[in-house]
Amino acid sequence: MNKKDYVNLAEARMARSPCLKNCIMAFVFGGGICCIGQALTDVYEMLGVPQDICSSLTSVTLIFISGLLTGTGVFDKIARVAGAGTLVPITGFANAVASPAVDSKAEGFVMGVGAKMFIIAGPVIVYGTAASVLYGIIYYLVGII
Amino acid sequence: MMDIIHFGDVYIKASASVVGQKEAEGPISDSFDHLIADEYFGKDTFEKAETEMCRLCINTLLSKAAVSPCDIDVMLAGDLVDQCIATSYAAKHFGVPFLGLYGACSTSAEGLLTAACMIGGRKVRNAVCFASSHFCTAERQYRFPLEYGCQRPPTAQNTVTGCGAFLLTDEKSDIAITEGIIGRISDNGVTDQNNMGAAMATAAFDTIRRYALSKDIRDIDLIATGDLGAEGFGLCSELLKREGIKLNDRLTDCGLMIYDREKQDVHAGGSGCGCMASVAAGKLIKMLEKREINSLMLVGTGALLNTGSVLQGESIPSIAHAVVLKKV
Known about the structure:
The complex is a heterodimer. By secondary structure, chain A is mainly alpha-helical.
C-alpha cells in the first residue's frame, strides 16, 4: 500500500470530533460568558462607574476570573467541555497567558515564567498587531478616496 | 536481512510496575505493584516526580528479586523527557553501568531486546531494563501547558503515568525471552501528531508480518502492541487481515488495556514509554506466570517525532521492536 492510499485509509477510519455537540457547548458556554460580561457591565454602571470605564473593568474582571480558574486548575476542566466557548472570548486569551506562566515556574521567573508566558498568546499578539496596522492603512486610504 | 534473532538462556527473573492515579482507576489496576495518587510523587516538579517513580520501580524490582544494585551488570532505560533525563537521574541512585535508550514508546521493548542480546551473547550475566513516562512531563513537552484549556481530538491518546522494570538474567527461571525482532523505520505519510496510532500501525504491522513470514505466528498465544490505541489498533488489524494474517482475539494493545475508554477521558487510549512497560511488567507477565497464556509477543511501538519535525510538516517516522516471551 502506498503512502497516499494509507493516509486515505487512516482518514476514512478516523474517529471524528462530535461537531454538533461541540458547537452547542461552545454556543452555551460562550454565550454564558458574554451574559456574565453584560451583567458585570450593568453592575458597574449601577455602581456609578463611567460607561467607557465599565467595559474595560468588565474585561479586567473576566481576565482575573480566568487567571484564577487557571491557577486553581479548574479552567482546563471547563474548557474540555466548553471548547471554543471558553477559547474565543477574552477568557481564552487570559488562560493562554496564565497557563504557560503557571506551568513554567519550575524553570525560574526569567527563563521560565518570563520567557514562556507568551508561547501560545505570542502569535495572536504579533498577527493581531500586524492586522490592526493593515486595517489602519486601509482605513486611511479609504478616507482619502 | 536478519528477521528473527534467537536467544538462548535469557530469562526474566522479576518485574515491577508503578503507575499513577488515572491508571489506578483503570481495569487492570490490581496487576501493578504500586499505585501512586500524588502526581508529584512527593517532589516539587513533574520531572523529579518521574525520576522518583523510576527509582521506586527499580527499588521494588530489586527487592522482589532479592538482589542489590552491586549485583547488576548493566541497566538499560529510557523515557520521553528531553534527552531522557528522568531515567538518567533515576539511574544515578544505583551506581550501575548504564545505557540510555531512546525509542519513544517502543523503549521498553528496545531495552528488553538489547539486554537479551547482551545476555544471550554472554557479555553480561544480568540486566535491569526499565522505561517510564509521566502524563504531565509529556504534555508539557509535546503539547500544551497542563492548565491550558483546549479540546483534544478523539484520535489523541493519553500519556500513561507509569514505569515498568524487568530483571533479565542468564539463570533459569519461569519466563524466557526466546526471540526478538529489531524494528524497521516506517514512514507512512501520516503527519498528524494527534493521531500517532495511525503513524505507528504500519510499523507494528511490518514487525508482526516479518515474524509471520519466518515462523508460524499461531504458536504465539498473545501478541500485545505497545500503544497503538483505538485508531492504530484498528488500522494494524486491517493491514494484517489484508495480508492474510489471522490473529483474531490473539492481538491486543497495551494502550487499550490500561484504561476503560468508556468511563475514562482518554480518547483513543494510552500511550507513552510507561504504557507497554507497566502493562507488560504488570498484567502480561502475570498472565504468563499464571499460565493463562504460554507465549507472548511484545511489539513495542514508537512514534519517533519531535516538536520541530511536526511544525516543519514532516511525516512521523515510527518503529516497532518485538520480543517473544515464553513460559518455561
